[in-house]
Amino acid sequence: MEFSTLGQHCSMKTCNQLDFLPMKCNLCSIVFCKEHIKYEEHQCPSFYRKNVEVPVCSSCNNGASLRNRECRCDPSLKKREKVYSYKCSVISCKQHEAIEVKCYKCSKRFCLKHRFPDDHKCQRFENIERSVKISSDTTIECTRNTNTIVENKNQSNNATTTEDDKLLALTVQLSLNRIAQEENDFLLAKALQESEQEETRRNRATPMVTTSNSNHRPKRKKTCSIQ
């Protein structure tokens, strides 16, 4: 009675033995002792699940399929497998096709049901979409940054243009003043030159006139004085 809490009793009514190492039937999931664990001993109600008969092929003595009762050695089956030789690349799909159908993104072979990228979860298609999205986001961000830079540059250019205009106006004014001064200097120099030339001509002409007057001075007649 000290170990009554340990182990389990056999489920057979005629046994009910306390077993410290009870075993459970893998078909009916009922606990039995070592003597009644066999299917026949406890008359397992799920024994039919183990009693499965498979038709045997008379040609190769191998089990045939219960669904269509065809054997792997059937020539018609081999011919059919040869015709439908393109297996779908989806792991869970067992479909074969008579024609080759490839995905235009990943170039893998698929059945008609899984031929589109969305149907077979095309990794390359998803990567392309992800890349396009990232590229689009990057382009939008670059466009925003470019617009900001252009606006700042335009403002800077406007300020620079104003300063340049002022500097240009001052330069033009100084240039005009310099040209006017040069013209005035030129006119003054020309006037001085003409004045000097006129003075020179006058100086040259004056001695000639004096000489001419002295040469044509009238001679005095000699007179005799009679005393």
UniProtKB/TrEMBL annotation:
Tell me the segments the record calls region Disordered. Answer: 195-227
Under Gene Ontology molecular function, one entry of this record is:
zinc ion binding
Which UniProt keyword terms apply here?
Answer: Metal-binding, Zinc, Zinc-finger
**Is the Hydrolase keyword given for this protein?**
no
Cite the InterPro entries for this sequence.
AN1-like_Znf, Znf_AN1
Gene3D superfamilies noted in UniProt: AN1-like Zinc finger
Which residue intervals define the domain AN1-type in the entry?
A: 4-52, 82-130
The Gene Ontology CC terms held by the record are: endoplasmic reticulum
The answer to whether keyword Phosphoprotein applies is: no
Q: Which Pfam families match?
A: zf-AN1
- Output one GO BP term: proteasome-mediated ubiquitin-dependent protein catabolic process
Name the SMART domains for this protein. Answer: ZnF_AN1
Q: Where is the composition biased (Basic residues)?
A: 216-227
Q: Where is the signal peptide?
A: none
Instruction: Tell me what this protein is called.
Output: AN1-type domain-containing protein
This chain's source organism reads Adineta steineri
